[in-house]
Amino acid sequence: MITQIGIASGEILTLIEEKKRPVSISEVEALLDNEKELTYMSIGWLVREGHVHLVDKGKDKYLCSC
User: Fold this and answer.
1) 46 three-class SS
2) Helix (H, G, I), strand (E, B), or coil: what is residue 7?
3) Which pLDDT score is estimated for 47?
4) What is the pLDDT of residue 66?
5) By C-alpha distance, which of 47, 44, 33, 31 is closest to 5?
6) What's the pLDDT band for 7 if we cut at 50, 70, 90?
């Protein structure tokens, strides 16, 4: 499971870098073909490690590498 979280985390970071803008969590779920639980565990790991930040924009939460 730890390996899967690491791979999914890398996919999320790559997505944010490619878009060059904050990406909503729902967009991450739609663009990456991972289980919802795996996506959220990966986001949690990235936030905890300081690789991404969560930003509130209205009702949505966005991930940015700022």
Assistant:
1) helix
2) helix
3) 97
4) 79
5) 44
6) very high
Which structure tokens are listed for 12? 């999320």
- 16: helix, coil or strand? helix
Full-model pTM: 0.91
Contact 63, 23 (CB under 8 A): yes
What single-letter DSSP state applies at residue 55?
E
Q: What is the pLDDT of residues 18-59, one digit of tens each?
A: 999 999 999 999 999 999 999 999 999 999 999 999 999 888
Place of tokens 């991450």: 28
C-alpha 38/C-alpha 21 separation (Å) is 22
Q: How far apart are CA 6 and CA 28, in angstroms?
A: 15
Find, among 22, 27, 20, 4, the residue nearest to 63 by Cα: 22
